[in-house]
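Weekly structure sync, notes
Attendees: PL (lead), two postdocs, one rotation student
Agenda item 3: pending single-chain targets
PL asked that the sequence for the first pending target be pasted directly into the notes so everyone works from the same version. It is reproduced below exactly as submitted, 157 residues in total.
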Amino acid sequence: MTDVVYMTKETVMELEKELHELKVKGRREMAQKIADARSHGDLSENADYDAAKEAQQMLERKIAKIETTLSKVQIIRPEEFPSDKIYILSKIKIKNINTGGFLEYIMVSAEEADYEKNKLSVTSPIGKALMGKKIGDKVQVKVPAGLIDYEVIEIGK
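Predicted structure, written out during the meeting:
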């Protein structure tokens, strides 16, 4: 059974662009590196050749991973979900009751999660605790640092 990977259309387009770059430019550059290393003589004692071959394997693994992900993608749109509860693609504002600080996130799939862009995975401990909650709901989340209490302040699209 294949697991569905939920992504936005924009993220799918970014992945497709990256895949194309890796297959065309990445493979061409890798072939050149291998050819250059091969020209240095005896392959049995050629560290440059070994390094280039290992880099090639890493490139091919990355290509395969992106292809696998794209084969499982189901594109989702914010308008497909109600805005009265927290779902994937909800834009939320929560209050850390312990510190009084506020956090804003967009709920996304694990594949799209990006802490620096405030994209919170729905499968993370905090994401799981928030899914399905409404404005005013409070949740307690166990994280490595201990227990944190949050209150849902806003839900948007």
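Discussion points:
- The chain has a mean pLDDT of 90.
- Strands lie at 5-7, 73-75, 91-96, 102-108, 119-121, 138-143, 146-156.
Action: rotation student to compare against the earlier draft before next sync.
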